[in-house]
Amino acid sequence: MPKNIFSRVQSRSLTRHHKIAMAGVATLGAAAIGFSAVPSGASTKTTTEAAQPAAVAYSTQQIKDVKASVTDQMAGASLKAEQIAAKKKADAAAAAKKKAAAEAAKKKAEAAREAKEAASRAAKRAEAKKAAKKTYPNNLDGWIRESLDVMKKHGIPGSYDGIKRNIIRESSGNPRAINNWDINAINGIPSKGLLQVIPPTFKHWHVPGTSWDIYDPVANITAACNYAADKYGSMDNVDSAY
């Protein structure tokens, strides 16, 4: 029984001793670690003063730099937007100018085309008018008017009234009239036609472009007027047999 008590006491004593030993070892170990962490040239002096927290330094320079960077970026974006807007405006103006120039050129081309077509139509009308042969009534009035147009082309003087007056006196307006009783008839060359022209006179004073038939009204009038213009100045000056 006592043996067992001793054993328990001894066991508790050893245990306490062991604890103390272990605590000492831990203390020595911590001291060794602390000593090894101190640089060789550093002082090992300990102090009871509490380590003061290091002051934190704040700088506004970085904030200023950030604000400046943001401002520059905004200014650059604004400038770029203005440049884009200016380019769009310039492109729109150029497109409008190009469109206006194209419309002006189109109008000019249309005006030139219309003028050309109008000139072509006028030329065609003139050609058609020129090609269309002027017609005259087949009567005394028509014969005199046609004769006057032929005389005008050849510069032969005479008037409507002068020609008609002499026609009425010479043949009464009969294109087939013939004189078989005057001296010309006696000589075998009777006067014929509206203005009673003898064949030799008709042949000599015949006007180009008219018929060679002495009984043709227009040919007879123009030949007689051509002769009268040479001898009397104009058929208007003839008041009797000529």
Automatic annotation (TrEMBL):
InterPro entries referenced in this protein's UniProt entry, alphabetically:
Lysozyme-like_dom_sf (IPR023346), Transglycosylase_SLT_dom_1 (IPR008258)
Leader peptide range in chain numbering: none
Kindly list the residue ranges recorded as spanning the membrane: 20-38
Q: Which Gene3D superfamilies match?
A: 1.10.530.10
Q: Give start and end of each Transglycosylase SLT domain.
A: 167-237
- Biased composition regions of type Basic and acidic residues, renumbered to the chain: 112-130
Which UniProt keywords are listed? Membrane, Transmembrane, Transmembrane helix
Lyase is among the record's keywords: no
Q: Which SUPFAM superfamilies match?
A: Lysozyme-like
- Which residues does the annotated region (Disordered) include? 112-131
Which Pfam families does this UniProt record tie to the protein?
SLT (PF01464)
Determine if Calcium is one of this entry's keywords: no
State the protein's name: Transglycosylase SLT domain-containing protein
- The species this protein belongs to is Streptomyces paradoxus
Task: Please name the taxonomic classification of the source.
Answer: Bacteria, Bacillati, Actinomycetota, Actinomycetes, Kitasatosporales
